[in-house]
Amino acid sequence: MIVFNTTFHIDESLHEEFIEYMLQKFIPMSTKSGILTSARFSRVFGSDKDEGLSFAMEFQVADINQLEKWNREESKVVHSELMEKFKEKLVGFSTVMQTIDY
Known about the structure:
Layout: E1 2-10, H1 15-31, E2 37-44, E3 53-61, H2 64-73, H3 75-86, E4 90-98
Protein backbone atom coordinates (compact mmCIF):
# COMPACT_ATOMS: atom_id res chain seq x y z
CA MET A 1 0.00 0.00 0.00
CA ILE A 2 1.22 3.50 -0.88
CA VAL A 3 0.51 6.52 1.31
CA PHE A 4 0.40 9.84 -0.55
CA ASN A 5 0.71 12.76 1.86
CA THR A 6 0.78 16.48 1.10
CA THR A 7 1.56 18.92 3.87
CA PHE A 8 0.14 22.40 3.33
CA HIS A 9 0.98 25.63 5.09
CA ILE A 10 -1.71 28.32 4.85
CA ASP A 11 -1.94 31.91 6.00
CA GLU A 12 -3.79 31.86 9.33
CA SER A 13 -6.41 34.34 8.12
CA LEU A 14 -7.54 31.81 5.48
CA HIS A 15 -7.45 28.60 7.51
CA GLU A 16 -11.23 28.24 7.96
CA GLU A 17 -11.85 28.82 4.25
CA PHE A 18 -9.04 26.36 3.46
CA ILE A 19 -10.53 23.65 5.69
CA GLU A 20 -13.94 24.10 4.10
CA TYR A 21 -12.45 23.96 0.60
CA MET A 22 -10.47 20.82 1.38
CA LEU A 23 -13.50 19.01 2.80
CA GLN A 24 -16.05 20.20 0.24
CA LYS A 25 -13.99 20.33 -2.98
CA PHE A 26 -10.43 18.98 -2.79
CA ILE A 27 -11.16 15.58 -1.22
CA PRO A 28 -14.16 14.79 -3.47
CA MET A 29 -12.22 15.86 -6.59
CA SER A 30 -9.18 13.82 -5.54
CA THR A 31 -11.09 10.62 -4.80
CA LYS A 32 -13.61 10.83 -7.66
CA SER A 33 -11.94 8.17 -9.81
CA GLY A 34 -11.30 5.80 -6.91
CA ILE A 35 -7.54 5.74 -7.41
CA LEU A 36 -6.95 7.73 -4.21
CA THR A 37 -8.85 6.32 -1.23
CA SER A 38 -9.07 6.61 2.57
CA ALA A 39 -8.71 10.39 2.73
CA ARG A 40 -7.47 11.70 6.07
CA PHE A 41 -7.13 15.45 6.68
CA SER A 42 -5.24 16.52 9.81
CA ARG A 43 -3.94 19.63 11.53
CA VAL A 44 -0.16 19.60 11.98
CA PHE A 45 1.13 21.13 15.18
CA GLY A 46 4.55 22.74 15.15
CA SER A 47 6.54 25.65 16.44
CA ASP A 48 4.57 28.53 17.93
CA LYS A 49 6.88 30.99 16.19
CA ASP A 50 5.71 29.83 12.73
CA GLU A 51 3.21 32.14 11.10
CA GLY A 52 0.23 30.40 9.60
CA LEU A 53 -1.14 26.91 10.14
CA SER A 54 -0.15 23.54 8.69
CA PHE A 55 -2.35 20.66 7.57
CA ALA A 56 -1.66 17.19 6.18
CA MET A 57 -3.80 15.62 3.46
CA GLU A 58 -3.26 11.88 3.23
CA PHE A 59 -4.60 9.30 0.80
CA GLN A 60 -3.98 5.62 0.25
CA VAL A 61 -3.18 4.23 -3.20
CA ALA A 62 -2.96 0.58 -4.24
CA ASP A 63 0.51 0.91 -5.79
CA ILE A 64 2.97 3.38 -7.27
CA ASN A 65 1.68 2.78 -10.82
CA GLN A 66 -1.80 3.87 -9.77
CA LEU A 67 -0.37 6.99 -8.12
CA GLU A 68 1.52 7.82 -11.31
CA LYS A 69 -1.72 7.37 -13.27
CA TRP A 70 -3.53 9.76 -10.92
CA ASN A 71 -0.70 12.28 -11.25
CA ARG A 72 -0.84 12.10 -15.07
CA GLU A 73 -4.61 12.17 -15.46
CA GLU A 74 -6.09 14.03 -12.48
CA SER A 75 -3.66 15.96 -10.33
CA LYS A 76 -3.31 19.00 -12.59
CA VAL A 77 -6.99 19.92 -12.34
CA VAL A 78 -7.18 19.26 -8.60
CA HIS A 79 -4.05 21.23 -7.73
CA SER A 80 -4.54 24.09 -10.20
CA GLU A 81 -7.96 24.90 -8.72
CA LEU A 82 -6.50 24.81 -5.21
CA MET A 83 -3.61 27.11 -6.11
CA GLU A 84 -5.86 29.47 -8.06
CA LYS A 85 -8.06 29.88 -5.01
CA PHE A 86 -5.33 30.43 -2.39
CA LYS A 87 -2.45 31.72 -4.57
CA GLU A 88 0.68 32.76 -2.64
CA LYS A 89 -1.05 32.28 0.73
CA LEU A 90 -0.58 28.49 0.42
CA VAL A 91 2.51 26.32 0.01
CA GLY A 92 2.86 22.57 0.15
CA PHE A 93 5.05 19.57 -0.40
CA SER A 94 4.20 15.95 -1.05
CA THR A 95 5.66 12.74 0.33
CA VAL A 96 5.09 9.24 -1.07
CA MET A 97 5.54 6.38 1.39
CA GLN A 98 5.14 2.62 1.28
CA THR A 99 3.58 0.96 4.30
CA ILE A 100 5.61 -1.78 5.96
CA ASP A 101 3.65 -4.75 7.26
CA TYR A 102 4.96 -6.34 10.43
